[in-house]
Specification:
Blueprint: E1 2-6, H1 7-22, E2 26-31, H2 38-48, E3 63-68, E4 71-77, H3 86-89, H4 92-95, E5 101-105, E6 119-124, E7 129-136, H5 139-152, E8 156-157
Parallel strand pairs: 2-5, 2-6, 4-5
Antiparallel strand pairs: 1-7, 1-8, 3-4, 6-7
Helix pairs in contact: 1-2, 1-5
Length: 162
């Protein structure tokens, strides 16, 4: 399923809607070009789960951890990762526990080390308009599809030809 969001406000509104769906934890890959809105989505989601401060891109630290009451979110940005094996050295397996929500930007940089995601959210488009398209890759991800479809009904749906 795919939807169109307009501006930062649209991206944040979608992210806030995803918070109740994803809060139980799982592995979500965020795909898109530089500036597509991956970090904006992450910020909206993390703040909707209760974080009061700034949410910055973990480009240089690789990961920012957020303990949010009963929920925990790890936000990864692998853009500057030189070799996927670096993930093993940083203890990636401990981060990917099943009850933690892991948002990973530039997951393709971790190919061969990262497990299959529960969900991939692909962000494309230019200007002020973005198309968000998601696909499940696990049973957990498949369970998210119905609530995501309900959330999508609040946005402009996009067909493959748009």
């Amino acid at each position: 399923m795919a939807i169109r969001v307009v501006g930062e406000e649209g991206m944040l509104r979608f992210a806030v809607g995803c918070a109740s769906i994803l809060k139980q934890g799982g592995l979500v890959f965020l795909e898109g070009t530089l500036g597509a809105g991956k970090t904006t989505f992450s910020r909206g989601l993390i703040q909707a789960l209760g974080h009061q401060g700034a949410v910055k891109s973990p480009t240089y630290t690789l990961v920012e951890e957020y303990q949010l009451g009963a929920a925990q979110v790890n936000h990864f940005d692998l853009y500057r990762l030189g070799d996927p094996e670096e993930l093993e050295y940083m203890g990636i397996r401990e981060y990917l526990e099943s009850d933690i929500l892991n948002l990973i930007e530039w997951a393709d940089k971790g190919t061969g080390v990262l497990p299959k995601p529960d969900l991939v959210l692909a962000i494309s488009g230019d200007g002020d308009s973005r198309v968000l398209d998601w696909q499940a890759f696990s049973d957990r991800g498949a369970q998210w599809l119905a609530p995501l479809a309900l959330l999508a009904s609040e946005f402009e749906c996009v067909t493959a030809s748009q």
